[in-house]
Design a protein that fits this description.
By secondary structure, the chain is an alpha+beta fold. It folds into 2 domains: 107 residues, PH-domain like (Roll), CATH 2.30.29; 68 residues. Helices cover 39% and strands 26% of the residues. A hairpin with a 2-residue loop joins strand 4 and strand 5. 16% of the residues are buried.
Length: 194
């Protein structure tokens, strides 16, 4: 049986003065399922621990030695709940990235706008195209889910003394196609790719 041709994930919209490239996060089914199960277990643990903390007085501990132990135990559980909640929030963030996150590249009026979006959360950077040099396909083979900084991705360019990377988890062929689209755009010149 012949493999069907992969059409890519990038969604490209061209207008007279604007080029927009949307790259949805790669859907890794195992990671999404595993994280979903982990979040269910996390939520059960969170509810159970909160129930214990808020209902400790109704458990009938009256002896002073047990009472002092219980105050230490409540303090320990409070710290544990805070750490548990923060870790859960990070996992929910990365889980959301896998489900609904995307990178958005907008080229307009000599500006390269790069955004990572998850619902209403938007990480945005803008770069002047005239200062962009050496746009190429990155040979970095490491895989990451998400980074707040632009340090991972299949396409890279130099901006001053910094290397910016984007288009995370794209196949090399699709990254080359996006570079071709950038080369065709009137905002870019040959100097941007050398």
């Amino acid at each position: 049986m012949v493999e069907p041709e992969f059409k890519g994930r990038a969604i490209i919209k061209k207008d007279i003065d604007i080029l927009e490239i949307k790259i949805p996060a790669k859907k890794r089914i195992f990671n999404i399922l595993f994280t979903s199960v982990w979040l269910i277990a996390w939520a059960i643990g969170e509810v159970f621990a909160l129930f214990l903390i808020f209902n400790i007085n109704e458990m009938g501990f009256t002896n002073n030695s047990i009472g002092s132990f219980m105050s230490v135990w409540i303090s320990f559980m409070s710290v544990l709940i805070i750490a548990w909640t923060i870790s859960g929030a990070f996992v929910i963030f990365f889980w959301s990235w896998m489900l609904i996150g995307y990178e958005l590249i907008i080229i307009e009026k000599g500006v390269f706008i790069f955004q990572k979006k998850i619902g209403l959360i938007n990480f945005k950077k803008e770069y002047e195209i005239k200062n962009i040099k050496c746009i190429t396909v990155s040979k970095d083979t490491s895989e990451h889910i998400f980074s707040f900084r632009n340090e991972i991705g299949k396409i890279k360019f130099d901006y001053g003394m910094e290397t910016i990377k984007f288009a995370n988890d794209l196949d090399e062929a699709e990254a080359k196609m996006i570079i071709c689209e950038l080369q065709k755009n009137h905002n870019f010149t040959e100097s941007n790719f050398a």
